[in-house]
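Sorry, explain these C-alpha cells?

***
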Amino acid sequence: MFKTVLFPIDQSRETREAADVVTNVVQKYGSRLVLLSVVEEPPPDAPSADPMVSPEVVAKLLENAQSLFSGQGIQSEILERQGKPAFTICDVADEIGADLIIMGCRGLGLTEEGADDSVTTRVINLSPCPVLIVP
C-alpha cells in the first residue's frame, strides 16, 4: 500500500517521536524510506540562530537518522534540499513518487492566527499524496 514513504526531519522532539511510527509503517508495508531535510534559506541581512540553515548540521542530522533506522534493520535513502520547507517537502514527494509523507506536528496552526505559518498545514494542503501527522 505504501511503497515509498517520505519522512521529512528536523531537530524537533516531534520528529523523534514520529520516528517510531515511521519504523512501524515501513516494516509493516516493506516500504522504501526516504529521509529528507530541508536547509532553509535565511532572509538576506538577518542573522539566524536556526541550526536548520546550516548544511553541516543538516547533513549530520540525516546521517544520525539513517543510523537510527539502520539499527532497526531499515535501509533508507537521504536527501538534502534547500528551500522553503513545506514547498520542498511536497516537491520531493512528487519527484520520488511518495505514497505517504509522515511528519511530526509542532502544534503550530492550532489557532487561526498560526494556521498559515505551520509547515504541517501547508504540507497537508499542497501534498501530492496522503500525509500522516504524528501528534
Notes: Strands lie at 4-8, 32-39, 76-82, 100-104, 131-134.
